Amino acid sequence: MLPAQASLATLANQPDAAIDLAAAALAISRLFQPEVTTDRWLEELDDLAAAARNRIRGEAELLGQVAMLNEFLFAERGFSGNRDDFYDPRNSFLDQVLARRLGIPITLSVVYVEVAARIGLPACGVGFPAHFLVRVGHGSSALMLDTYAGGVALPEAELDRRLADVFGEGQLSIRSNPSLLRPAGKHEILVRMLRNLVSVYRLRGDQANLLEALNAVLTLAPDLPDELRQRGLLYAALGYHPAALSDLQRFSEVADNAEEIAAIAPIIADLSQRPLKLH
Fold it and tell me: Which of 51, 127, 168, 232 has most Cβ atoms within 10 angstroms of its Cβ?
């Protein structure tokens, strides 16, 4: 088994179709928990799917299949959103979500999509603003599910209300922005999972794990401006001046926020004048 960072580096150059999402999510777990065994948790997903298949066998209607899968995962097996400690990093580790039956929207959605795929139910993740969702089915009959709320189906009016909460009343609607419900790519899902961990470890002041998460997300998406800026500033705080200078210079090249670029310019100038230390 490849080390976790090496696994992510391999994924960075793979097309979405070639990526095993569950295995990739477990590679993220192994970054922070080296003892995690990927096969153990892939088997857990297989077992969940085998049990779920027995529940929905013979159910022809999509609504019925979704209702039975929801009943199985959320009522019988007890998967739920962790409302008591949303920012617990374990909520972002697929193995811990499978073991504890607790997660956040994106990891619960990964469980749902992976189980659905194994039983032939057409489901995909959707990177909806501020709250990851699952889409089941195709076209106008597709359902948008909130796995953090037990798989409840969200009508268009509720989706618009959630957009208003994020962007302001009347700023965006599903009718005028249908791309908001497009399927999320696997690279996109992994980056979003890692960005959640960046936020968690930054809030906790955990510099070691914050750097690990930043390294991982920039392995998958090397030119993300905010992550380049964060890692550059963290490197500077830790005294790794050449690495900090490299990240912040790249940030200034790819960012489009003039105020942030201007704020970083004096730091780049200071780092440029520092003598190179040999160790």
Answer: 232
159 and 35 both lie in a single domain:
yes
Q: Tell me the pLDDT tens digit for each residue of 60-97.
A: 788 999 999 999 999 999 999 999 999 999 999 999 99
Cα–Cα distance, 182 to 11 (Å, whole number) = 22
Which of 147, 162, 181 finishes a domain? 181
> Of the candidates 61, 139, 150, 156, which has an alpha carbon nearest to the alpha carbon of residue 109?
150
> Which residues fall within 8 angstroms of residue 66, CB to CB, at 6 or more apart?
121, 136, 143, 145, 151, 153
Name the packing angle between helices 207-220 and 21-32 (round to 10°).
150
Tens digit of pLDDT for each residue in 223-246? 999 999 999 999 999 999 999 999
Q: What is the reported pTM?
A: 0.94
Residue 262 belongs to what domain range?
Answer: 223-273
Q: C-alpha angle with apex 102: 100 to 107, nearest 5 degrees?
A: 115
* CB contact set of 198 (below 8 Å; sequence gap of 6+): 210, 213, 214, 217, 227, 230
